[in-house]
Amino acid sequence: MAEFDTSFPVLVLAAGRARDLGHHTLFPPETMLAFRLRPEDLILERLRGLADPTAPQFVKTLGETAAVPMDGNVAVDLAKQTRLLPALLIWQTTPDEAKRLAEAGYPSIEADDVAAQFNQPPAVERITETSLPIAASSSARIVAYRGLADGSENLALIIGNPRARSAPPVRIHSACFTGDVLGSLRCDCGPQLHRAVERIAEEGGGVILYLDQEGRGIGITNKLRSYLLQERGLDTLEANNSLGWEDDARNFGLAAAILKELGLTRIKLLSDNPIKVDSMAKFGILVQSRVAHTIPPNGTNDRYLETKTTCCGHFREQTGTRRTG
């Protein structure tokens, strides 16, 4: 920070985090706001607490509001792409100062180039494919795809011959290390994944899309921060908002791009999430039917599942209708 001694930075925070720090706003939680910092707050420990509600808190209130610097939202988007907390210090420099910093080795990038990349339709590149015998299907295959905009690594588990069916069953599953691998009881991800594999094998073929979108797109580290906030009484959406993230940061356009690359444009979707259904239609995939894919609560994840229904609008298996809140 000592290098930027020609101006004083503003702090850019999401409205959800700003509310925690006592700022009253009606903006959605993911809206970025700017605040003037006090000189005494410009030390690492205080700044970390401003960004991260799970870190020690040394600052209880924010400074005066300011205008979000030009291209500030692009910088935030860039931070989110790398799963950092959406909290930034932004210095505005003179052209001469920017030139000096570039010559000193600081990386430089044009905001327009970043924005142009983010505004591209979701696209993937097929990287490699191999057989992957699994308990449910000894002839299963797996294909790796890289997201062209963000470098994410996504997988398609192919069971049987999906293209032989007019509308093969498909499960769009976001990665969940804690649930899928460790068997966490906080969510229903692991049971949903394994049940989907079984159902697709029972039907003779289909696809599991395993997307690099841990924690609704916020990443594993931020998801663990969210868990800590949930232990303090927040629900899963409130915790994400407190970290500065929106309710759901995933982009299911990647799933549609993979399906098209596999030659599948008409599917039977195993899901209770209306956003997935709507996203497939938006990106040119016809959902011929939706199959309820609800896992009963286990006594630990009851509030989590209720939040998905009441606040995220997930369908209820019994009725096929949604509740919103």
CATH architecture annotation name of the largest domain: 3-Layer(aba) Sandwich
The number of distinct β-strands equals 11
Helix content: 25-40%
Describe the main β-sheet briefly.
7 strands, mixed
CATH class of the largest domain: Alpha Beta
Tally of individual helices: 13
Overall radius of gyration? 22 Å
Please write the string of helix (H) and strand (E) elements: EHEHEHEHHEEEEHHEHHHHEHEH
Uncertain segments of ≥5 residues (pLDDT<50)? 318-325
The percent range for strand residues is 15-25%
Q: How far is it from the N-terminal to the C-terminal residue, by CA?
A: 44 Å
The CATH topology label of the largest domain is Rossmann fold
Pfam family, one: GTP_cyclohydro2
Enzyme class: hydrolase
EC number: 3.5.4.25
Protein name: GTP cyclohydrolase-2
SSE topology sketch:
Elements: E1 10-14, H1 15-20, E2 32-36, H2 44-51, E3 65-66, H3 72-81, E4 87-90, H4 95-103, H5 111-118, E5 124-131, E6 141-147, E7 153-160, E8 169-174, H6 177-181, H7 189-202, E9 205-211, H8 214-217, H9 220-231, H10 236-242, H11 253-261, E10 266-270, H12 274-282, E11 286-291, H13 302-310
Parallel strand pairs: 8-9, 8-10, 10-11
Antiparallel strand pairs: 1-2, 1-4, 2-3, 5-6, 6-7, 7-9
Helix pairs in contact: 3-5, 9-10
Binding site for Zn(2+): 176, 187, 189
Protein name: GTP cyclohydrolase-2
InterPro entries: GTP_cyclohydro_II, RibA, RibA-like_sf
